[in-house]
Write a structure and sequence with these properties.
Layout: H1 3-9, H2 50-62, E1 67-71, H3 74-82, E2 90-94, H4 99-109, E3 115-119, H5 124-130, E4 135-141, H6 153-162, E5 166-170, H7 175-178, E6 188-192, E7 206-210, H8 213-226, H9 232-242, H10 245-264, E8 269-273, H11 283-289, E9 296-301, H12 306-313, E10 320-321, E11 331-333, H13 345-350, E12 358-361, H14 367-378
Parallel strand pairs: 2-3, 2-4, 4-5, 5-6, 10-11
Antiparallel strand pairs: 1-7, 6-7, 8-9, 9-12, 11-12
């Protein structure tokens, strides 16, 4: 089945009682049982909900996986993966990643005795050298947030499988439309479904996809026991969003490419971080494992003062200054004070994330209007 057809029909079956083509919103907390322990597959809404079931089937299908799990947020999904571990276990993680993930690792799980080693995952050899007898999980993003670094999923997966270590890939920036880590050997794929999967800035949700049945049962048990579940309305909204994912991603990619090249040629702009440039260090890998280069990019001004950066950040009209990404509308963001503020400044600087870096989430508006907006802000 081709991608467009799969996205529109993933998880969707006409409602057997009414024939409704859209999955109903089952707004219920519990289910009547025919006799003690005899039910129709649903007992209590923290454990299961028919709207959520449809979404989880869709999640599995769009990532070419066997199983999907829906969570109350992307961080809740990440938290559930971390709960596979026990004190003394080690995680090898990317040194360039979403600030909320770093905060969860460093402020919550380090206190429980989980050890974290941060390496440059753009070189698979760094991961191989860092793996020890205590390593149980490798966590990567590709492309990374916000520096657009690229890691070779297939090469890393070969290393982790040989060492019997789980590999989880945060695929939020790429979305399943551009990249399918399970096909490349990853054990778990994580998404902040708040972003491209929902696509309309109106829902908070996370997702995990996997192929291993035993791993799915472990993750589901943790989710059911700890309660990080989404409501049925949120599930309905993401189901609706997935139906147009391919259409939106096509425009995100087209606009992203046009704006990245325009920024690179602007006299006031310094470095532009976008993995679609042929001289990007990860371009060859991105071209191999991705179908296009996405709508996320970051840039720095030649005037690297905070005053200049703030002036641009506060001067756009179509680009809204806000957290998050992946919606139909374009957003402008200052990682150092917003999405990545939880990472200590010395670590941010060491990893190449400057105080004046500006991140853009390119929406699906007309690219010429977006360029005109940036031109005015830069002026």
């Amino acid at each position: 089945m081709k991608t467009a057809t799969k996205y529109i029909h993933a998880g969707a079956e006409p409602d057997p009682s009414t024939g409704a083509i859209m999955t109903p919103i089952y707004q219920t907390s519990t289910y009547v049982q025919e006799a003690p322990g005899v039910n129709k597959g649903y007992e209590y809404a923290r454990s299961q909900n028919p709207t959520r079931t449809a979404l989880e089937e869709a999640y599995a299908q769009i990532e070419n996986g066997k199983f999907g799990l829906a969570f109350s947020s992307g961080v809740a999904a990440t938290d559930t993966v971390m709960k596979l571990l026990v004190p003394g276990d080690e995680v090898i993680a990317a040194n360039d990643m979403y600030g909320g993930t770093y905060r969860l690792f460093s402020k919550i799980y380090e206190k429980f005795g989980i050890q974290f080693t941060y390496v440059d995952t753009t070189h698979a050899a760094n991961i191989e050298q860092a793996i020890s007898a205590k390593t149980k999980l490798v966590w990567i993003e590709t492309p990374t947030n916000p520096l657009m670094n690229i890691s070779d999923i297939e090469a890393i997966a070969k290393i982790t499988k040989a060492k019997n270590v789980l590999l989880c890939v945060d695929n939020t920036f790429a979305s399943p439309y551009l990249q399918n880590p399970l096909d490349l050997g990853a054990d778990i794929v994580m998404h902040s479904a708040t972003k491209y999967l929902g696509g309309h800035s109106d829902v908070i949700q996370g997702a995990l996809m996997m192929n291993d049945a035993a791993l799915r049962e472990q993750l589901y048990f943790i989710q059911k026991s700890c309660g990080a579940v989404p409501g049925p309305m949120d599930c309905f909204l993401v189901l609706r969003g997935i139906k147009t994912l391919h259409l939106r991603m096509q425009r995100h990619c087209e606009n992203g490419a046009k704006i990245a090249h325009w920024l690179r040629n602007h006299p006031k702009v310094g470095k532009v971080y976008w993995c679609g440039f042929e001289d990007h260090p990860g371009y060859a890998i991105a071209k191999k494992q991705m179908r296009d280069f996405g709508g996320m990019l970051s840039f720095e001004l030649k005037d690297d003062s905070m005053e200049a950066a703030k002036k641009v950040l506060s001067s756009t009209k179509l680009f809204s200054l806000a957290e998050s990404l992946g919606g139909v509308e374009s957003l402008i963001n200052h990682p150092a004070t917003m999405t990545h503020a939880s990472i200590p400044r010395e670590k941010r600087i060491a990893n190449g994330l400057s105080d004046t870096l500006i991140r853009l989430s390119i929406g699906v508006e007309d690219a010429d209007d977006l360029i005109a907006d940036l031109e005015k802000a830069l002026a």
